[in-house]
Design goal:
This protein is of the alpha+beta class and about 600 residues long. The chain is built from 15 helices and 27 strands. The strands form eight sheets. A six-stranded antiparallel β-sheet has the order 20-22-21-27-26-25, sandwiched between helices. Strands 8-7-10-11 form a four-stranded antiparallel β-sheet.
């Protein structure tokens, strides 16, 4: 039982009012005060008369005084006289008749003093009668008079405090847990009534914030389980929220509970940690449960905000949020960086918090190393960038151009460089054509097995030309259409194609090899090519499925290789395209650097 409180007539203090809608709803059904009662007698309102003076435990000498009606007259009576009933606790042992008189019936009445000529925005009281059947409280019969009086008085106070008016109520045995409890999540306040509900009970929760009074008051109907969700979008700001619980029966509203819930204002913590030479992670912690999304803008002081980047932070299992920034997105600038945090508030609006400024330094990154693009969040380290740049330089120093694309077959994370420049495809197209043909016409594999084997093992031009003449370009055109590659590239036997386009087509090959039984059978013919830089460099460590192409003659210049590499950390798609005149060995260092980048991306 909570500490009892002394009730003193005509003493005024600040209390939380019941929602105005309840008071208005009951106004017509409750007995109105007579004109005699309306005379200026300075009678206290319900809120003024029933207030909590202190929240300290009551001693045996405390006095409980309530304003009550002296008689229960016929409703047609036009006048009523008021008396004061005083229950005084003493240390003496009560007589049984005194205990019965105290416990059986304590009634209170409150007079509605609302005056329309005054600019009053809330009805402070209504006329009603409150009866508390103390005999239903377990243990009263055997308790001392002091204990019984304390129990009854505190229940009167709790009921008045809950309803804001003195509605009919019956005291019950205190529950082992709170009558009404709440829980906060990302979008709403979950309210649960823990008492017993009957089929005839109609339960409602009134919810509003302390900010600006009751201007965001909302009513929520409880479910049959006694629960409701109060969406934060219906309310304002942070701080204290009032949750009042009412039952409705026969047009009457009965206050059951009044609690206050605190929705704390966010005050997140942010930490910046170095992952590698060019990558930093931002961890946002101390995030309240009601925040469901966080974005992190970051920029350097160099050239103001020209390099600002926004990243969506991902929620971690411990409730924190993680964002990763790649300094390549900020032109590899060293120095001071500004990190801010923006989060979606409970009302759907975004709010920002300037968290910190931090210094990020890295070795100088220029040229090709700075031009390597990351795909879907992987940011290669400076050392990997420099290795890729060195491999590219080996090709460009001989007067050739090169492009490449690599990404994880499942996540899409990877890297790219000059990946949109088209080169002559040479025999690399054969690996795409065969897969598209067999996927859409499985009998072609059985009918042309030796031809297909020669095309994939030995890059047979005769076999490829035969398949093209027998089956046409429709199958490969469909293949291209499915992955967003220009279908006009299907008609030439050997089109010009970019590393990005070739990688997309190999991703389609991968899906077919992984999900179709005939596709799995066909994929084995890609594992033992006669010539392939990817297979030569990585085939002893991993399973590779590739098809290279090369040529060096007037008007035709190419050294390409593309396919799938399966490692213990995952599978990735890779495509390299150059105009290097059939010099397959120039790709070896590039294949090794690309593989190193993939392994780093999986750490």
């Amino acid at each position: 039982m909570e500490p009892a409180t002394t009730l003193v007539e005509n003493q005024t203090t600040s209390t939380t009012s019941a929602p105005e809608a309840i008071q208005e709803e009951n106004k017509d059904t409750l007995t109105k005060a007579s004109s005699a009662d309306s005379q200026k007698e300075n009678k206290p309102t319900a809120t003024e008369a029933n207030t909590e003076e202190t929240a300290t435990p009551r001693t045996n000498q405390d006095t409980v005084t309530t304003s009550t009606s002296s008689t229960r007259k016929d409703p047609s009576s036009t006048s009523a006289s008021d008396t004061t009933q005083v229950v005084t606790e003493t240390e003496s042992t009560p007589q049984s008749s005194t205990l019965k008189e105290t416990s059986d019936k304590i009634s209170t009445s409150e007079t509605n003093n609302f005056q329309e000529e005054q600019d009053v925005t809330a009805v402070k009281s209504v006329v009603t009668t409150q009866i508390i059947e103390a005999k239903t409280v377990a243990g009263v019969a055997s308790a001392s008079q002091s204990q019984a009086t304390n129990l009854v008085a505190s229940q009167v106070l709790a009921s008045v405090r809950a309803s804001g008016t003195a509605s009919d109520a019956t005291a019950e045995e205190p529950a082992s847990k709170e009558l009404v409890s709440t829980d906060q999540d990302g979008k709403s306040l979950k309210i649960s009534y823990n008492g017993t509900l009957t089929e005839n009970d109609s339960l409602k929760f009134a919810v509003w914030s302390d900010e600006n009074g009751q201007d965001d008051l909302r009513w929520y109907d409880a479910s049959t389980m006694g629960t409701a969700l109060a969406s934060y979008a219906n309310h304002k700001g942070f701080g204290s929220y009032n949750v009042h619980t009412y039952s409705f029966e026969g047009g009457q509203a009965h206050g059951l509970s009044a609690i206050t819930v605190t929705v704390p204002k966010p005050n997140v913590s942010t930490a910046v940690d170095k992952v590698n030479d060019s990558t930093y992670k931002i961890t946002v912690s101390n995030v309240p449960k009601y925040i469901s999304s966080i974005v992190v803008p970051i920029w350097s002081d160099v050239n103001d905000q020209d390099g600002i980047r926004w990243t969506n932070a991902s929620k971690q299992s411990d409730g924190s949020y993680l964002s990763v920034t790649d300094l390549s997105k900020h032109h590899f600038e060293s120095g001071k960086y500004n990190v801010h945090v923006y989060y979606e508030l409970n009302n759907g609006q975004m709010s920002g918090q300037a968290t910190l400024a931090t210094s990020m330094t890295l070795p100088a990154v220029t040229g090709v190393a700075a031009e390597v693009d990351d795909l879907n969040g992987y940011a290669p380290s400076v050392s990997v960038r420099n290795q890729l740049a060195s491999a590219v330089k080996m090709i460009t120093d001989q007067g050739y151009q090169v492009g490449f694309t690599m990404f994880d077959a499942k996540t899409g994370q990877g890297i790219a460089y000059n990946s949109n420049q088209r080169f002559y495809v040479a025999s690399s197209i054969k690996g795409i054509y065969v897969a598209s043909l067999v996927a859409q016409n499985p009998l072609a594999l059985n009918n042309n097995y030796s031809t297909i084997q020669n095309v994939l093992y030995y890059s047979s031009n005769e076999g490829y030309n035969y398949l093209r003449s027998a089956y046409g370009s429709g199958y490969i055109a469909n293949w291209m259409s499915q992955v967003g590659v220009d279908t006009s590239l299907a008609k030439p036997n050997y089109p010009n194609i970019s590393a990005d386009e070739l990688a997309k087509l190999w991703k389609r090959n991968y899906q077919y090899f992984e999900t179709d039984s005939t596709g799995k059978q066909l994929s084995q013919l890609y594992t033992r090519p006669n010539l392939s830089p990817i297979h030569s460099v990585l085939g002893s460590q991993y399973t590779t499925k590739t098809k290279a192409g090369w040529i060096g003659m007037t008007g035709y210049h190419a050294t390409n290789d593309a396919g799938i590499v399966s490692t213990p950390k995952g599978d990735y798609v890779v495509a390299t395209t150059t105009n290097a005149d059939g010099k397959l060995g120039l790709l070896n260092d590039l294949v090794s650097a690309i593989n190193k980048a993939y392994l780093e991306s999986k750490n």
